[in-house]
Design a protein that fits this description.
This protein is an alpha/beta fold and 146 residues long. It has 7 helices and 4 strands. The protein is globular and about 40 Å long.
């Protein structure tokens, strides 16, 4: 089911809102817009965020209290998680076709399937999105990383 107003949120943008050393205008603008739009993520988003936050905790980059605050902020915005379709072969082929990781292919595929723009700071993902006709959310404010 397609949503009328919203976007697909890549983990790179969420991290840019949570980690002070990764904060930028784009991430903060996207995060502020969450109250106005339905935010969609592929099912793997929560696992990816959990992995990144747990690694940050292990190396002392973030405290357990900060992790709890991140999850509270995520709960408040009410992300709509889409189930992953296809099997490992499907995602391997999507990744190969687009020259992306299988994870990034999931974000791009979600944007395609839902006909929504993609919010990402990943330059390679954004380049492929543009190439296949997926608009970038708030792209005029976007500073992409490699």
């Amino acid at each position: 089911m397609s949503l009328n107003s919203g976007f697909v949120l890549d983990s790179s943008v969420a991290l840019g809102a949570f980690f002070e050393d990764e904060q930028d205008d784009y991430s903060l603008s996207v995060w502020r817009s969450l109250a106005e739009a339905q935010v969609v993520v592929p099912a793997l988003w929560h696992l990816e965020m959990g992995n990144i936050l747990s690694r940050a905790l292990r190396v002392g980059r973030i405290t357990q209290e900060a992790i709890d605050q991140c999850w509270q902020r995520i709960d408040v915005v009410g992300l709509h998680a889409l189930p992953l379709h296809g099997d490992a072969r499907h995602w391997t082929q999507r990744a190969a076709d687009w020259g992306l990781s299988a994870y990034d292919a999931c974000y791009l595929d979600a944007a395609l399937q839902q006909r929504l723009p993609l919010a990402t700071k990943d330059k390679q993902l954004a380049d492929v999105a543009r190439r296949i006709g997926v608009p970038l959310y708030l792209q005029s404010r976007q500073a992409l990383s490699t």
